[in-house]
Amino acid sequence: MGEKRLGACDIGGTSIKMAFLTTEGDIIRKWSIPTDRSEGGLNIVSHIARSFNEELEQDGVTAADVIAVGVGAPGPADPVEGTISGAVNIGWENGYPLKKLLEEALELPVFIENDANCAALGEMWRGAGNGAGDVVCVTLGTGVGGGVVSKGMIITGVNGAAGEIGHITVVPENGFLCNCGKKGCLETVASATGIVNLYKAEGKDAPDARTVFERAAEGDAAAKRVIDRCAFYLGLAIGNIANTLNPAKVVVGGGVSEAGDVLLAPLEQYVRQFTFPRAMDVLSIEKAKLGNDAGVIGAAYLAKVMTV
Amino acid sequence: MGEKRLGACDIGGTSIKMAFLTTEGDIIRKWSIPTDRSEGGLNIVSHIARSFNEELEQDGVTAADVIAVGVGAPGPADPVEGTISGAVNIGWENGYPLKKLLEEALELPVFIENDANCAALGEMWRGAGNGAGDVVCVTLGTGVGGGVVSKGMIITGVNGAAGEIGHITVVPENGFLCNCGKKGCLETVASATGIVNLYKAEGKDAPDARTVFERAAEGDAAAKRVIDRCAFYLGLAIGNIANTLNPAKVVVGGGVSEAGDVLLAPLEQYVRQFTFPRAMDVLSIEKAKLGNDAGVIGAAYLAKVMTV
Description:
five-stranded mixed β-sheet, ATP binding (chains A, B), alpha/beta, Nucleotidyltransferase, domain 5, 12 strands, homodimer, 2 domains, ROK_glcA (chains A, B)
């Protein structure tokens, strides 16, 4: 009972994070269910709906107490058509009509967005973005993801490919080959995989990025050069985003950002080196704050602003 | 009489272009007056108002027949406060309250924007952008200017420094020094000045960019390398903008773009090389169409959308 709430889902390859939130973005309840990728992912919608209604019941409320549901999903989203493409991890065919199917199953308005964009909205609203409407998020994980928020809303671009920050070219000549088919993408040098790539190019080997950071801490000169180079490329990409969009904050998250100041201190210097002075005046680099909750908080924000 | 019209000004260092337009963006009448930079540019507003009213009278209409007036001015604009900063060419102090002063003088609603952003809006609305809401404009002149349009509106950023495409860093190491204080900005290698810079770095000398293009046409190998390199850097910047914003069109204008296919053909190849495949699927590179009218047409668009 009481105040109306927002619903949120963050659909991933192994689990679906779900939550109810207040219209201020406070989490009322959160839970997750496994992602059933069998049969081309066709059971996912009904699983979400069943779980959603069970949890509503536990709170003694019904769908009528929910304003709308925001959903983040992997792969480029077409928020107008309500479809998701390229969600190969989940098994959905291109143009899967997620919005329509969930609206039928939940009997509620549903709004969808790419999952990295939802995370960016979450950090903008209740995380490191601190409500600033112009925020760029960069997530350094196995790959590099991103989201661009301008005046409080995601920039989706023409076919949902905006915010592909991991595919900004930072090594235009003789760069490593990227999964996308291009060469020299930010992802090839600033993700966990990229850091190992750079270390290999130094003629050394490490099982993972964490090991490279550990060796740098122990004084390994090659590992130190790799981290400086990673900060250099990341600073170049962020500086050029700032020259284009003039945001208030760039929020850096994901596993690699957990390395902390050893990466973020040189990053700040490089961002300053590559950013137009007037844009630099108002820019700050922040560490992401919401961790795994960013996605559901951003999805709830989407549900909120789309129903205003 | 008849249909209501839009007013538009494009304030430059030597002249102020003015126009009346229909709400569809057709120019009813256009004219220009010299820019009086004496006394810190303090006569400009009254000159605009006098000229504007004289021209209205010639058409047998009054201010009541004007919906609103859009104004482009050099230097970063704060559209909310209605102020212009850094218009050193004109003599205005930082934070010059152009909107307020013009509204008092014209007794009409006035909306202001940076001049390069107005030109981008003009090309988006009635030029090479052809009404596509997601358009990036790059103007290659003495410097390199730009404007970013998303969903039909300019992205201004936090303090009006968005769209500083000329200051995207494309030579992160050992680049030429730029007027902005940074090194390796796009402007240092892709403007008219930049092309001469690159030619000098080849150990050759030319009085202007036009001469470099002429020598390339005559088979000068250094001049050909310079043009290829200019296209490479421009393609890198445009590709990375596309990876960030996923626009439908990138519109290239300004004097240097008049060189035509000798620059634009390699540019297209480099844009393809540096753009994420999904973003490339929907992207086209277009030559600007409106020439010197882009500014007033975009200013009129601004006046139109701000009063809807």
